[in-house]
Structure formats: structure tokens, C-alpha cells
Amino acid sequence: MNISLRWLQEFLRRDLDAADVAARLAMLGAPVDAVEPLHAELAPFVVARVLDVGPHPDPKATRIRLATVDDGTGAPLTVVCGAPNVAAGRSYPFARLGTRMPGPQGFRIEPRPIRGVVSEGMLCSARELGLGQEHDGILLLDTDAAPGTPLLDAVVLADTRLVVDVTPNRPDLLGHKGVARELSASYGAPFRLPVIAGAGRVDVPAARLTGASDAVGGLHLAIEDAASCPRFHAAVIQGAAVGPSPDWLRRRLESVGVRSINNVVDATNYVMLELNQPMHAYDVSRLRGATLVVRRARAGERVTTLDAVERPLTGEMVAIADSEGVIGIAGVMGGASTEVSAASRDILLEAAYWDPTRIRRTRRDLNLGTEASYRFERGIDLWGGEAAMRRCLELVLATAGGTLVETPLDLWPVPTHPPRIFLRPARVTRVLGIELPWHELERHLVAIGATVVSKPEEGRIAVDVPGWRPDLRREIDLIEEIARLHGYDDFPSELQRFRVGRLPDAPEEAVRSSVRRGLVAEGFYEVVSLPMGAADGADSVRLLNPLSADDAWLRRRLLPGLVRLVEANWANRVADVRLFEIGTAFAAGAPGERPREERRVAAVLTGRREPAHWTGSGDAMFDLWDLKARLEAAVALAIPDAEVQVEAQGWIVRDRKGRLVGEGGPLKADAPPWAGPLFGFELLVDPAPRRPAPFAPLPATPSSERVLALLLPEGVRVREVESVLRRAGGALLERVDVDSDYRGAELPAGTRSVAFRLTFRTPDRTLRDSEVDDAESRLLAALATELGVQRRDGASRTGG
Amino acid sequence: MPSTGYPDLDALLPRLDSIPTLTAAALESERTAILGRKSGRLTAALKTLGALPVEERKRYGAAVNQLKLRFEAAFAERAIGLEAEARQRESMGADLTMPGRRRWVGAEHPVTKVMDEIVDIFRELGFAVATGPEVETEWYNFLALNFPADHPAMDMHDTLYVDAPPAAGERAGKLLLRTHTSPVQIRTLLASPPPVRVVIPGMVYRNDAMDASHLPAFAQIEGLAVDEGISFVDLKATLDHFAHRFFSPSTKTRFRPSFFPFTEPSAEMDVECQLCHGAGCAACKGTGWMEILGCGMVHPAVLENCGLDSEQFTGWAFGMGPHRIALLRYGVPDIRLLLGGDMRFLEAVGRPGGA
To answer: How high is the ipTM of this complex?
Structure first.
């Protein structure tokens, strides 16, 4: 909401400092996003009086003259002037030498000779100052200000625009009066409506209350949909002279960014900006059938609005119609056919209240938001229409003349009162934590315009809230007002006793942080990416209103996003990339079920296994085995009890119930030739709480190691050998490690040699060599029978 | 050194003793002299065995073999020692200004670090972590939180709707991506009677076009305290305490009135601008303040929607955006950097001490 500081000053009748106003409004709940000085570029211009006007010495320069000018500095200046209206004894805006003219390409006034005479400054036109389009002559100032007075002090021009951030609960702050009321409370000073020059010439009578239909100025008015339009004020002025608005009105509207149109339309906009009552003016001569009806639009009806767009209407929208059809969309935008123009003489003014929800839906369905719809959907003052109509009539009569033909009409089928709320001072104390004296409560309530109907009685007081505060509906709303006006800064800030909450941590939180710590320790960097993208399989979940067609689906997997991030790094010529993400993946649920959400972890790695070093130790690239170890470590953290199984060129992970809960392996990507191979994995994160691993006593006896070099026939895999070793080794065999994997021509065809390092131990005594020998023989026998695996001849018998 | 019982072998014992002092070159020639295949002394001694009587052969042979093992062990030990000496000499002479050997380090995302830090501070104050689904119904996301249907307050949340019907038996309304973590307030209050003290970290979604300060998905962290006798003073004191712990004990704060449908009175907390410390700069638009969080007393209607007696219980809640706080903390100019996986950025902000 744009607010004019000068307008506020007129309400409060005192000088206001923009920064101070902004600070106060912020602390009242209406932060000021910007403070914009208007016409600040005119600061160097001064008022100058022309002392004398004479001809230019060059006889051919008939259209320019020499003016002798007093700019307040003492010595009269000679100024060359081409304007026809320069006259001795009058005052004009003056640019001294060195002044920069307004505008982006504003030039500097230099002492340049014009036809042989040096001009010592410039008398300016309105257009040259950015104050209007007139440039037939220089701007004659109607001022008594002494020569040398800054222009901005002499003429009502300077203003500051405050861009106020108004929350949806405070429609009253969408008018200057509402903002002035807040400041009045803050400064402890009274406020009242600014005086309008020429107003009060006509005494506007009180409106005549009537029902759903009546007549005014020969027009028949009717509300057929009272739910959408509970109240409608109307008045008719005849014989108005529609034309340009006076300067003050034009500047006032421009100061808040509203374009001036004509004196009637400007008057309606002025009232909206001042009192937050959007109004509308109709050209009576263009109403068909001397009738104006508020009714639901009929499906298929169309209307061309003021912006010259023809719009189709639906039965859910409220229309203003004459006897022939729709002439306006209620609360949103008037119609072009009855627009007030310079030719208009008789004017119908409307100040109505429209149901906020209906206006909101209409605005959305038409995709047509206006200053009026913005206010109506937030809720204006149902009881404020009469005052707004009076203000508007005074303004039109003062600026456009004409005659108010009849008492204004107030169509109000079901009169109501603003709500009454009961406030318990004890409740105020309980919610706010401080005890405020009764007179302070009352002072704050009065400041917002509420009426305190009774003194505390049975622990409560009755409060009638003002119509412009539709947000005040229950006791807590008043408590907020009291806290706000007391000042949040004035509350103490001391920690109080508290009871610890009953709930324990969500278990997934601990799991997620342990997975995260594990991957960080492995050298991965965490990323947090957007979960929207292209469809990824039939059970992807679609968004109904995506930002773009490219982002219309929710991710089913995290890995594809990570691969794109790797590619982006490659594009930056970064080869060493290790990323992980812990996030949510979405998949369509079973029919009748909501989409499934899974917390998952995914990681990718490519590039050097360790940072490059001058010794050459960092030259190796990450390979499949680096991935496998990290995959297994992540499985242990994210989904313990799951098993990593070989699948094609990589691995899959299955939980104890056999469900697929993860995968890992080499990844395809758009890789530059210098990039290392890319690997990655993705796992479900099981939120179940983890139990700490039980402690196994440290061994007190020495172990014996044996290295068995085994010949594995084609098709026999290490995991199978391992499981035979473990089974046959029994309790004696503590661990099995793979020492080497060798293929060579000297081995029997179709075999490879894998050396296993076996560690034997018993917890209670030192093993004898013969016991280990026996165990080794048992293992070799089992391997030979079950897998056809033999010891490699000539391999060393003992290791370690 | 015990005698072998054979003078010729005993004569070799001093040479055994002197092995630990041999140079690399001397070690090699000594090995040849003792164990060499052609002229080694012990090799020669073994060659004489054949000429000895059986008993004598056994005894003498055992003595030679034993001595041979001792020599072998001594030579091996010296070889290892020489190698170690060589390595030590090498490192003594090395240019120690050469770079050391690093290993890869990783880091949590800056937003995660901020969230963890916030959670830790609130844990000290008796809060636990609560979580909830990211796909929500309108009831949990809006209606239960006192957003009036079809009200301009909804415009504060540009909502992304999900193309799926809500599950049977679920609280009414269309499915959407939660626009704030506040629906977890509702789920928590429905699940547990007060006293409730939880913080709720998580991702939230808005139908906002991406630019330097907006993302369609970002982190939020929310806090909720509900019990008997909780007041606005508790709210202010707790959040002040938080600001002093998170920023610095001398950080100034201020509370401004604001509007959220689910709290009343509502407030926004500003902290002194962390860049200019209140002097006013471009980052704080000259105000000297930075908005950090929204908060307020839990609206009685929210408690009532969760089946709680709003006369008996009061509470407060707050919500803040770790993405925005991470921008402030790390001086990151564009929020989109937090979204990408640019290793150069992640390494820079992930450096120890970078937090």
C-alpha cells in the first residue's frame, strides 16, 4: 500500500519525519518496505521574481527576451527567456547556474551565450520540471514566497511515499485514515479528516435508510442478492462538469501512484485511498431503463470492462445490471458502457459492501485483480459507506459542481451492528504474562476505535469493535491489540520455569544424522536439492499446478538428480566429486491411498581416490570396490539387517523381508573424456530406532593365521567359498579376509587363484598348531566336496 | 655369545657380533663370505660333513645349521635396519616445505548445519524433534491452523497441489505439498497431550518462481510449546535466549507485531543486522535489523481444533527458514547456490571453521 506522508500530515496536523513514521509503523505491525522521496530532484530549484522584461539586443531574435531576475542572492541576473508569459513582478521556478535538470538525461545549466547574450540561469516550464505536460510557457507560481526560497518549500510538491506492507488481517490500513489512526495512537495525538478546499459548500444530508429496493434521482435501484451485497449506498448528482482535477487532487493521487483521470473518477479514487471504501461512478445518461440492479450474473452473459476487455461471466459472479444487461462486475471492475467521461452530466455514485469470499472467487476466476477487489476481499467497513459517500459527494460537488438531486440512499435490507466482544482482564494477564492496569487496557481499546461499553463486571468488560476491523472477532483478537499497542518491546524477557515435553525425538532424526555423519566422514558433501523434475516411471506423482512443465513431477529417486549435479561439476571442469543427499522420494500409492513418501539416502562419487600428491599417491581413481565398501557402510547405517546382493554389473540391497531397498553400481552420465568413472548408490533410510551393538569381550588369547591359496573354478564366487569356510570352520574360525585374486597362464584352465587369510582363535586357551592343521584340513575337504575348490599347488603353507 | 664347541665355528662368532654395525656394501660381502654358495665359510663347513663319522656328523651338522640360522637372522635384521636408516636419512634431508598428504573431507550442507545448531539450542530447553509427512491435506496444512477457507491469508502461501485423492478416512481436503512445517504442530498436538515441547525441521514447498532469494522448496524449522500457564513472556524470553545463543550474547533483538492465522498475538523477531551490526547497510535495507523468524501465541482455535481446552492450555510457536539464515551466516548472495552441488562452493562453506 502506497501511503503519502503529506496526506498523513494533514490527518495529524503536524510535521512527520518519514524515517520516524516508518519505524513506528514497523513496531505497530505494518513494516515499511520503502521510503521514496518524491520530486527530490527539484530540491536545487528556487523561486525567482522577474523584475523587468526587455527585448533581446539581436534584432533578429524576435521571439526571445531578456528578463532581469531576482533569485534572492542579491545582484539581479540576466536571463534569456523564450516564454510568451514571462511578466515583470511575477514569480517562476528558477534553475541557477550549475543546476541539473530533472530526468535521466537532465543537463546542467551552464553560462552559455544565446544569440550573443549569456543567460545566468533558466526560468522553467512545468514540463521541464517533470510536473506536467504544459510547456507553452514557464510555470507561473502562485506564491508570496521570497525570491531564493526553495521551490519545494514554496509549492506543495514535495512528498514522501511510504510503501507499507499491510498484512491480510488489516484492511483498515489500506486507507490513509487507518494508518493515521495507528500513528495517532503512537504519537498520542488526535487526528481528523483533512479539510478539502471548497468542500462544505453544500450540506450533504444524512442518507435515507431503506430496504432492498428504492429510487433516487429518478433511478430505480434494487439488491436482488443481499448475501453478496448486504449494503449499497447511492447518490445522484446532476449537471456536473466533468473535467481535469485540480492540481492538489491530481498530485495527491500521483503521490501514491494513481493516475488522474477526471475530477469525478479521481474523487472516487481519493475516497478509496483515504477511507478504504472503493466507489464507482456511472454516467446516468447511459443507463438503459433508468434502472440499476445488483444480481447474480447469468451463465453466458458478457460485459466489456473499463479496460476494454470483454469478459464472460458465470452464475457465481455478482453483476450490476441495467434493464438491458450487465454493466459492471460488482466489486471488481465497472463496465465501459457507463464510464464517466467529459461528456457526462449526471452521475450516479455507488459505495457498496461486497461479500469478501464472492469477490475473491470472482477475481480469481476472471484473473482480474483490482484496487477495489483487493480491498473488498479483505473486508471493508460495512458501517463506513455513508461517511465515504458524503466525502465523495463533497469532493465531486467541490471540483465538478452540479447538484445533489436527492438525499443519498442507503439500501440495507438487514441492518446489523458491529460485533460485541467480552474481554476478561485476567485472561489478558494469563496470555500475555504481565498484568496491565485497567486504564491501559481501555486506552488501547479506545485507540483502535473500539467502544468500551461497560466497566469490569464479573471479571469481564463488553467491547464494541469498530466496523473497519473485521479481524476482531473474539477475545484473543483484543488481547493482541492490547499487546501490540502496549509495545512488544515493553514485555520482559526472562526465561520462566517450564516442563519438559512428553514426546521423545522422532526416531528417524537420529538415524538420519548418523547416516549423514557416516557419509561426511567418508569425504562426501551433502546437497539439498529440489524434488521436482520430469516424470520417472509410471508411478511418479504429478503436481496439479507446477511452476513449469519441466518441474511437473515429484522425484521417485534421488540418484538422477545427483548425476545431474555431477555433470554440472564436470561442466565446471571439476573432476573430483563426492556428493550425497538425504531426502524424500515420492511414489504413487495404491488406489485409494495417498502417495508414498520415502526418506532415502543417495551418494555419488567420481575422480581421484585421494587428493593429488607430489609423491604420486593420489593418482588412483575411485573404482567399483571403493563404491562397494561405501555402499556396505551406508547400508549398515541406513538399513541394518539388509543384504547386499550382486545384480548385473552392480549390487542391489534387500531387507529381511526380501524387499528391494537399495541399489548401487556404475552410473551412466554425460561424461567428458577426462572424467573418471562414476559410481553411486541409493538406499531407503529405515526410521526404526537402533539398538547399540552388544559388547564382545576383547580376545585374551593369541590367534593363528593361515593363508590358503585356492583355485576357484569358473562360476564359483568368493561369497560361496566364504560361506563354506565359515560353516566348516565353526567357532575356531574368527575371520576370513581375501588377500589376493590372481589369474594367470600357469593356472589350470578355467580357474583363478584367490588367497584367503584365515584367523583362528579360541577365547579360553592358545590353539595348538595341530588343532589349526586339523581345522585347515576340514576346510579343504569341505571346499573340495561342496564347490570343487582345490588348494593351489606350490603355494606357501603358512602365512603371517 | 655361547661357544659352539668347535673352534673353527667359534672363530666366526665375533663376525656375527659385528653384523649390526656393517654398512650396506660390507653387509653384502660379509653375507657372501659366510653364506656364499661357493666360498662361504659355513657352506664350506657343511661340505666337510660327508667326511665325518656319523655321530660327529650329526653334532657338527646341527651346530653349523644353528649358526647358519643365527647368521641369516642377523643379516636380515641388519638389512631392515639399513633400510630404516636410509629412510630416516632421506626424510632428514627432505624439503619439509613440500605439501603434506591430505585426504578427502566432506561436510554437511550449510542448511543442515544451521538446522542442527538450532535444534541443539532448543534441546537444551527441553524440546524434542518431531517430523511429519511432506504431502499433506488441506485440513492439516490450512484449516486446522485457522486459515479461513478462501481468505486472502491463503495468498501468503502459494500452494503446490498434488494430483492424487486423499486417502479414505483422512482429514478432508485436497492433497498438497506442505507449505510450512506447521501441520506437524497439529499432528503432534493430536498425538500427545501437553506438556508439548517440540522442534520440527523439514522441507516445505511453495509455488514460487526461483530467483536469488526464492526457492520452490526450502527448509523450515518450527517450534511449539503448549502447556498450562505459558505466556507471551515465555515466548519472548525463549526466542531472545535462542538469538543470543545462535548469534552472540550481545545480539540485539526486537519483536514486531505481525499476522499469522495460527498464532495470536503474532510477532516477527528481528535481530541486529549481522553485517553492519545495526548501523544500516544494503543487506538490511538501511534498517539495521534482519527478520529472522515469525512467532506468536498459539491461536485458541488451533488448540480447539486439536481437541484441547484453550482455556486450560496456552502455547507459543515459531518458524524460521534455515536457507535464509544460511545465506546470512555464510554471506552467500544467491540462494540458488544452496541448491546446487557445486563442489567448489560446498568445499568453501564446508571448511572447518567456516561455520
So the answer is: 0.86
